[in-house]
Amino acid sequence: MESIKKYVAEFIGTFVLVLFACGTAVAVGCDATKPEGPYLLTALAFGLVIVAMAYSIGNVSGCHINPAVSIAMLVSGKMTFKDFIGYIVSQFAGAIAGAAVLGWFLGFDCSFGANNLYKGDIWMSLAIEIVLTFVFVIAILGVTSKAENSKVAGIVIGLTLTLVHIFGIHFTGTSVNPARSLGPAIFAGGEALSNVWVFIVAPLVGGVLAAIVYKAIAPKSE
Prior knowledge:
Order of helices and strands: HHHHHHHHHH
Distance between the termini: 30 Å
Number of helices: 10
Strand content: under 5%
Shape: globular
Low-confidence stretches: none
Mean pLDDT: 94
Helix content: over 70%
Radius of gyration: 16 Å
Largest sheet: none
């Protein structure tokens, strides 16, 4: 029963992330191919969703709402493989549901805030997303490593996600989250769907690298 509650919480959190954050990107016209797009509003939307969810479902599931975070926790030995599978299934389901509601609200011909390759370059896009995810996840691992950080962890994580979006939107629209990318891509179709594997693989690699590096540099007490 406790596991089911965690999975439901992850579904809700990822649903909210896609609906509100990707929805903001669509509503304000943010587009990775248009440098004049309102990046800050979109970046803040992603960060604020994390803050809101961290202080609402964080005590239930830890508020991963991102397979890249979950795989980092798995590699770090902070969750079981069974829970890892339950989390990512819930996250992908929540993202797809969020994108479906977004299409209902804004029309299924909208962009859905889907990610795009940087200048059509797969390798550059992979590298960018790995770096962005590494920075995001290592911040999560650091701030959640001490119980005394619990009161500010959600704010730190939310601000870090805002930071990586401010930098990354210009390049790929910023994924750092396979679920956030797959949900919108399914409904956006076209190149967004055919290239979505980049935004699934890269964040997972970035998450694993962050877990390995943090484990290597963390104080012995941890």
